[in-house]
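Shipment paperwork, digital attachment
Item: protein structure file
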Amino acid sequence: MKDFSGMNHAGRTWRVIAAVLLFASVLASAYFIADRSFMRRNQEKYRADTEWLGALIAAEKQWIRQNQGADGQIYMNGEKAGDVDPYFACHAALGLLAGAHGFEVHEEDVMCVREYLNWHTARLIESGGITGVYRYTDGRLLRIGNADSVDAYLGAYLELMGNYIRLCESADGLDRWEEGISLAVKTLRKLTAGSLTAVSFDNGT
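Attachment content:
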C-alpha cells in the first residue's frame, strides 16, 4: 500500500498557508476600510487647516517662481538682492516639486525647475564641477565666491535632478544634463576618502 502521509501533510500545510493568507487579506481590507472611514470623519474637522496650508504652499511656490531670472537662475530675494546661491536655489526648486495629499505639482513648477537645472548644469560644467555664489551686478550675473561646502552643493544638485526625473517619469533632457551629473559624481568621488566625504578640496573636515 502506498504511503500518502506525506501528501496529507503537504495538503495540511497548504491549507494552513491559505488560511493565513486569507486572514491577512481580511485584516488588510478591514484596516483599509477603517482608514478610509477615519479620513472621512476627520475631513471636515481639518478642512480649514488644510485649505490654509494649501494656500500657503501655493503662495510660497509663486514667490519662488517670481524670483527666477531670465536664464533660469533662482535668486535668494529677487534681483534687488541679486544673489544666487545654488545650494539654497536647489532646495527652493525641491520645494516646487514637493507635493502632498491634495496639493498637486503644476506644470509651471516643473518648467521652473527644468529651467533652473539647465542654468545650474551650465554653471557646473563651466566651473569644472564646483559652483560658486553669484551676484547680479550691472546687468550681469557674476561669480563672487566659492561654495563653502562643495559636497553639500553637489548633493543638493543631484537630489534635485533625481527628484525631477522621478516625478516626470521621463529622461527628457537627460542628454544635455548627463555631463553635469557625471561631473558632479566624479567630483564627489574625488572628495571621498574611504567612507568619509570632505567638505571641499581646501577643507578636509
